[in-house]
User: Which sequence fits this backbone?
């Protein structure tokens, strides 16, 4: 009976650990995708927009 309780506690702790690990992996992947989007899409668009605005200001002078 005591071994069954120990086994149940072990299984519960293992499941909790697996769930926390999965959440961590998903969070890391999400951060990687966010950073990739920022570097490949958002930042170039922002810099292009800034350059266009500066060129328009120069042409207006």
Assistant:
């Amino acid at each position: 009976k005591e071994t069954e309780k120990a086994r149940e506690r072990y299984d519960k702790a293992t499941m909790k650990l697996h769930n926390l690990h999965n959440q961590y992996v998903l969070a890391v992947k999400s951060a990687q995708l966010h950073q990739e989007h920022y570097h490949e899409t958002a930042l170039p668009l922002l810099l292009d927009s800034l350059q266009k605005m500066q060129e328009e200001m120069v042409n207006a002078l």
